[in-house]
Amino acid sequence: MEKLKPQKTLAVIGGGASGFFCACNAARMNPALHVVLFEKSNKLLAKVKVSGGGRCNVTHSFTDIPSFLQNYPRGKNFLKRSFHVFNPEDTIHWFLQRGVELKQEKDGRIFPKSNQSQTIIDCLLNEVARHGIEILLQKKVNQLSCKEVNSMSGFERNQFILEFENGDKLKADYVCIACGGLANEYQYNWLKETKHSFISPVPSLFTFNIPNHPILKLMGVSLNNVMIKIPELKEKMEGPLLITHWGFSGPAVLKLSAFAARELARLQYQFTIQINWLPEYNEHEIRDAFPGIRIRNSRLMVGGKNPFNIPSRLWTYFLDNAGILSSIRWADLSSKQINKLIQILTGSLFKVHGKTTFKEEFVTSGGISLQEIHAQTMESKIHRGLYFCGEIMDVDGITGGFNFQYAWTSAWCAAKSIASASME
Ligand SMILES: Cc1cc2nc3c(=O)[nH]c(=O)nc-3n(C[C@H](O)[C@H](O)[C@H](O)COP(=O)(O)OP(=O)(O)OC[C@H]3O[C@@H](n4cnc5c(N)ncnc54)[C@H](O)[C@@H]3O)c2cc1C
């Protein structure tokens, strides 16, 4: 009589997007696998719920892998191989197969048609129920250790022991760590025995504070395109900008905060930015264009005629700063006033003092070093059978659905590898 193979167990640590996606896909790909998911809080998929302003920006439109990778300040090279396994089109297909229709907005962001993050939560909850996954709440893993054992076939394999806050222990054949971004080194302690290196976490995706600056009275003014530079870091970013009651926000600021996250943390969020409000021109080009603009508008008042389509409140602010009366005619501007205006238009300087978390979406940069993880399977290079997915790893994307896409991709890669290893 054929001997029954002992059932293998996968323990998934973390009940967020990546933990759920790994658990349900691994169970679906190998129905013989016993999958248990542990969540330290009493809430599942809490971030999915609040994501994208309650609408959950599931992914982003996709043309090819190289362009998609440009949206990851950290992890670009690593993800090159992962996106060959599971990309945004696969995400759309996966949800559609489970009855969730997605829609794409003009800027490429993709949301559920319902505009409700609950649709995504319901879909994931249905999937774990369908595949008989055991979910245990208020089960904080406090320690993870690994030992080599001899399997029945004679091959050495690892066995993992999870220890919980309440003292309980559990043995597992595979572990997927999907516990999200860690806020500090201390939170990494329970993972120390895995011997994985950890890149210290710093926040990404934040807005810039410029306390008490007179421009704050223009709160609510937005521009379609500006160029923001951080001269000290030689970093720059072009895109939309929003003036808020505390400083600057909008896609250009958030993107810049992500790409410069590590350096800005080093500067303790005290730095200078330079804004070119007309990024289609540099200072020389605008200087060359100015005589023509002046002649064409010579009889008009500068306050009434704004040739650059700058929002009128901002234009008035610029004129005030350049010491130009709105009632003066273009023909009567002095060269000193023109010079000052050009300098403001192409290179206004602002001192940033601190940051504000972007409530719509924020992530941690840093986490488990990618050098020690296989990009196509998310398996540890240190311990066979140990996997990672989601924000715990040193990967992060800009806003727009890139962080969830990475969560789905990494979870899928891990699930596929766990399912096939557990069938051997
Ligand atoms: C407000 C907000 C809005 C966002 N909106 C978007 C968006 O629209 N689109 C987008 O792409 N990205 C968005 N993001 C980013 C996105 O939510 C994250 O990248 C993603 O949720 C990461 O998933 P994860 O599964 O890796 O981690 P998490 O979602 O953080 O899940 C980790 C889970 O593990 C649990 N856990 C931690 N430690 C333990 C332990 N020791 N034992 C047991 N359980 C543990 C945690 O309690 C948590 O439930 C947003 C983030 C925020 C904060």
CATH class of the largest domain: Alpha Beta
Tally of DSSP β-strands = 20
Bound molecules: flavin-adenine dinucleotide
CATH architecture of the largest domain: 3-Layer(bba) Sandwich
- State the helix count: 12
Return residue spans where pLDDT drops below 50 for at least 5 consecutive residues.
none
Give the strand line-up of the largest sheet.
Answer: 17-16-13-14-15-12-18
Q: β content, as a range?
A: 25-35%
What is the name of the CATH superfamily of the largest domain?
Answer: FAD/NAD(P)-binding domain
Rg is: 26 Å
Portion in helices: 25-40%
Which of globular, elongated, flat, extended, rod-shaped describes the shape? elongated
Task: Quote the CATH topology of the largest domain.
Answer: FAD/NAD(P)-binding domain
* Tally of separate domains: 2
Main sheet: strands, sense, barrel: 7 strands, antiparallel
Compute the separation of the termini in Å: 20 Å
Give a quick summary of the entry.
The protein is of the alpha+beta class and 424 residues long.
Structure, described:
- This protein is an alpha+beta fold.
- The protein has two domains: 9-202 and 362-423, FAD/NAD(P)-binding domain; 206-357, no CATH class.
- Helix content is 32%, strand content 25%.
- The chain has twelve helices and 20 strands.
- The chain has helices at residues 17-29, 46-54, 65-69, 76-85, 88-97, 117-130, 251-259, 261-266, 283-296, 312-321, 335-347, 402-423, and strands at residues 9-13, 34-38, 59-60, 102-104, 109-112, 134-136, 141-150, 156-164, 169-172, 174-177, 198-204, 206-209, 222-230, 235-243, 247-249, 270-276, 348-353, 355-357, 363-368, 386-388.
- The strands form five sheets. It has a seven-stranded antiparallel β-sheet.
- A hairpin with a 3-residue loop joins β14 and β15 (247-249).
- The model has no long low-confidence stretch (mean pLDDT 94).
- Bound molecules: flavin-adenine dinucleotide.
- Residues 13-19, 38-41, 46-47, 50-52, 56-57, 140-141, 178-180, 359-363, 390-391, 401-404, 407 line the site of flavin-adenine dinucleotide.
